[in-house]
Amino acid sequence: MARSTPVKKAIRSLTWLLVIIAGLTALNGTATVLNDSGRDGWWNGASWVPELALDLQGGTQITLAAQLQNGETVSSQQLDQAVTIIRQRIDSAGVSESEITKQGSQNIVVSIPGRPDNATLERIEASAKLSFRPVLFTGAASSAEVGGEADGASASPSAGSTTAPYTPNPDLESTPTASPTNGSDLAWITPQLADVYENYNCAADNDLATAPDDEPLVTCSTDGTAKYILGPVEVAGSDISDATNGLATDAQGNSTNTWAVNLEFDGQGTDQFADVTSRLVTLQAPQNQFAVTLDNQVITAPSANAAITDGRAQITGQFTQDSSKALADQLKFGALPLSFSVQSNETITATLGQTQLVSGLIAGLIGLILVVIYSLIQYRALAFVTVLSLIIAAVLTYLVIAILSWREGYRLSLAGVTGLIVAIGITADSFIVYFERIRDELRDGRILENAVESGWKRAIRTIIASDTVNFLAAITLFILAVGNVKGFALTLGITTVIDLIVVSLFTHPMLQLIARTRFFGEGHSFSGLNPRALGAVYRGRAQFREPVVARGRKRAGGREAVIRQTIAERKAAEKNTRPGDNASGDEGTNS
Predict the structure, then answer these.
(1) pLDDT (0 to 100) of residue 333
(2) Of 23-32, 315-324, 418-427, 533-542, which gets the smallest average pLDDT?
(3) How many CA atoms lie within 13 Å of 116's alpha carbon, on the beta-carbon side?
(4) pLDDT of residue 288
(5) Which residues fall within 8 angstroms of residue 347, CB to CB, at 6 or more apart?
(6) Are 230 and 135 in contact (CB under 8 A)?
């Protein structure tokens, strides 16, 4: 005999739920195994245990000090802007639950959970002033200039190098013999500037960050392999409105396998960039290059292949997906109003610690126990569906949080734990709405199988409306809030979506299946779905009567049954109880 449609739907829903759980488990498990094997890839950092935030685990605290020239001051607005940009740079690296605050009148303190990787530290420590300068001359740096040994080994320049910066010969001419006409004019290269270039050591601790914008500059690439003489700043990094990475396209618009960085300038930047590229495209190498500098160190120096007048530029080169994204982040978020140096980098302990985490988990466990006790009292055997649904919701939530932890850099804070505890109430509320709708249908005289289907149609609208409100509140908090409140909003949003999944793919299918069992279908007294105990109203052909009441006992649910009568049922009842409608006139009943 073929299964009925509700049973088929229930089995199909439960199968989809198993597929979702198995998929999430396989994804996290595979990534964890690959990460433990030491291979690099998208699974880096994968683990079964979610990472904890700063308040529960501790982390790294970096103090950035503004680099000022003589007599220069820092405004509160500049510091606020710097805090915002640094936060964007850290978030773009996938680090969440970080804290960026002002300290005093010219410092910024960056606190990051755990021990950040080198790439994240470089993003923070390189959060400096971005600018575009034309290239006047360039050449390769020797191994000695980059701090290498005689055997040819090389190392990147270090801010802590003990090599002293070169002091130029004061007897050499430092003023151009002719006034330069533009930023690419070779008249900028004076005898003293040429002497600095010849003796410049990329490993030396030169104070490049405070170099004037309106003067030429001798500097090196960030990896210390090339030296440059650059003209004055012609486009400021603050004129970049957006920067993204992606695969470059050819002249026909087809995608290639080469990664590129795409730039968009604002109105002022568009005009300035158009003027500069129109000039550079007519010059010979290396004067046709436009250097992108961060703290006046060259990130990249692409050549101008055409005049760019629409404010949209593309930088190509030997990029990988990761390096192009890192450069795009630097270009997009690196235009700070000030330059900063790292004043300190130290490890800090958790602000709250494991004790508060355990207290939060105990509070959640107590709330869960209370929900189970309430379900047992109110719904009796039906409470096992509540317990199983909560377990399924907990498994899904844990898997999603674990995956977000290693894939997107999410870290669980005490505020996030609070969001998970609140989710217990949200999920239990959905069960109560559904169960009460089923009970309403039983009171109206329907059998349990029909009551489950009718009750679901009425309940799902209420559940969706309630979860939609919760989800909108979570989105609003996540967009507008910062810090730990974002963690609360994220867990609230995740658990709200999971609540809909569990109710639709587990709770309702389970009710469809157990409605066909003898224990629940016949309304056992401990089932929680006993029609007589609920005050059910039975309909016959043009007749209406209340539940049968045992002699000497108060009628169970009789008052509630009368309240739930429709107008037609009340009129029928009044007509059947009018004097003279039965033989005795006072004891007759209508059956």
Answers:
(1) 63
(2) 533-542
(3) 29
(4) 92
(5) 58, 59, 60, 61, 115
(6) yes
pLDDT value at residue 335: 55
Q: State residue 359's pLDDT score.
A: 80
Predicted local confidence at residue 481, as pLDDT: 76
Higher pLDDT, 455 or 88: 455
Q: Which of 218-232, 375-389, 512-526, 539-553 has the lowest mean pLDDT?
A: 539-553
Average pLDDT over residues 529-533: 79
The whole-angstrom separation of Cα 218 and Cα 293 is 12
At a CB cut-off of 8 Å and minimum separation 6, what does 538 contact?
Answer: 445, 545, 547
- Cα Rg for the chain, rounded, in angstroms? 36
Backbone angles phi, psi at 47, to 5 degrees: -160, 160
Is 111:60 a contact under the CB 8 Å cutoff?
A: yes
Residue type, 513: L
Tokens 């250097």 correspond to 291
Distances (CA, A) of 334 to 92, 122, 211, 487: 12, 12, 17, 26
Q: Percentage of residues in the chain with pLDDT exceeding 70?
A: 76
Confidence category of residue 4, pLDDT binned at 50, 70, 90? low
Strands (E), 221-329: 226-230, 235-236, 240-249, 255-265, 290-294, 297-300, 312-316
pTM of the shown model: 0.58
- Sheet order of strands, 240-249 included: 240-249, 255-265, 312-316
Q: How far apart are CA 427 and CA 476, in angstroms?
A: 21
For residues 40-67, average pLDDT: 80
d(CA 522, CA 525): 9
Helix boundaries (H) for 51-75: 54-57
- pLDDT over threshold 60, residue 146: no
Query: Which residue, among 576, 590, 453, has the nearest Cα to 513 in the 3D structure?
Result: 453
Tokens coding 262: 């795409």
**What DSSP line would sit under 501-520, residue for residue?**
HHIIIIIHHHHHHHTTSHHH
Cα–Cα separations (whole angstroms), residue 416 to 56, 141, 495: 11, 50, 11
Is the confidence at residue 370, as pLDDT, over 70? yes
Contact predicate 291/184, CB 8 Å: no
Q: How many residues does the chain have?
A: 591
User: Could you tell me which of 209, 213, 312, 204 has the C-alpha nearest to residue 264?
Assistant: 312
Q: Which long-range contacts (CB under 8 A, 24 or more apart) does 42-50 make?
A: 42/407, 43/406, 44/406, 45/406, 46/406, 46/407, 47/402, 47/405, 47/406, 48/402, 49/402, 50/398, 50/401, 50/402, 50/404, 50/405, 50/410, 50/411, 50/412
Contact indicator for 206, 123 with CB cutoff of 8 Å: no
Closest C-alpha among 454, 451, 496 to residue 472: 496
